[in-house]
Specification:
The protein has about 120 residues and is α/β, with parallel strands linked by helices. It has one domain: Glutaredoxin, CATH 3.40.30.10. Helix content is about 35%, strand content about 25%. The chain is built from 4 helices and 5 strands, in the order E-H-E-H-E-H-E-E-H. Strand 4 and strand 5 form a beta hairpin. The chain starts with 16 loop residues before the first strand and ends with a helix. This is Thioredoxin. It comes from Halosimplex pelagicum.
Length: about 120
């Protein structure tokens, strides 16, 4: 369960991308593709439970999954109104389109991502 900076599938990434700072997230979002940002914390139980779901979504959908540690990126989390973790923010076409708070079941997250994936 490692977080990588790039996948080797050639079509986007197949593992979550660790994001450190607003410029890195902005760069991913600016690609215009679907980006699911997982705002999480190491100490958060529901975040740990959600991790394998997020990894499967990264591996099996066209979306790029960004992992944002809220403790290391407090200003970034604040700028997206993250008050609790996990918070998932979905971007499509360079714009924020959805925000979901709390651990979500995989089918619900997958449907949300696929709704914007083309």
């Amino acid at each position: 369960m490692t977080t990588e900076t790039a996948g080797d599938s050639g079509a986007g990434t197949d593992a979550p991308v660790a994001v450190n700072g607003e410029s890195e997230l902005d760069e991913l979002v600016a690609s215009g593709d679907v980006v699911l940002a997982d705002f999480h914390a190491d100490w958060c139980g529901p975040c740990k439970a959600l991790e394998p779901v997020v990894e499967r979504i990264a591996e099996t959908t066209a979306a790029t999954v960004a992992k944002v540690d809220v403790d290391a990126n407090q200003q970034l989390a604040s700028s997206y109104g993250v008050r609790g973790v996990p918070t998932l923010v979905l971007f499509a076409g360079g714009e924020q389109v959805e925000q979901v708070v709390g651990a979500q079941p995989e089918p619900q997250l997958r449907a949300l991502v696929e709704e914007y994936s083309g």
